[in-house]
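Record LPS-assembly lipoprotein LptE, 164 aa.
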Amino acid sequence: MQRRTFLHAGLVAGAALTLAGCGFRLRGFDTPGLAIAELALAGSNSEFYQLTEERLTRAGTQVHDRAAMILNLGPENFREHRLSVLESGPQEHEMRLTVPYSVQRRSDNAYLIAEQRLEVSTRFTLSDANLLAQDELREEARRELREEALRRLLERLRILSPSS
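=>
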């Protein structure tokens, strides 16, 4: 009887691990880098620009000025507004990041992806009781927004083929 229970538990654990592995692949964690071998970056030298350059390089894409395609990044724009109506106590805030981008072919300046906007948002709570942590919470929200916007940008760049 214990042997059957042990066998069933092993089968259930094996099935759970197999399904978990499939789920990760379906969510894109197991996908290869971009199909684009090289790409030029154009735009203001913001933190988002630097993070994009770093991630493209890490994904196996060479970033240099002579590449056949150009990724144009506009300035990152953060907007924050308070969602709470009360003037005191914990206050909920929403921060939104918008980054315009486009992709051009260098040979004829044709747009492969016409200007689009990455727009992501997050919510966080600020408290008057902890004024020193407010700047840290805002900076953490900015980091999270940049990461999410970059993840979405890379997903959109995956549709481009090297022959585009």
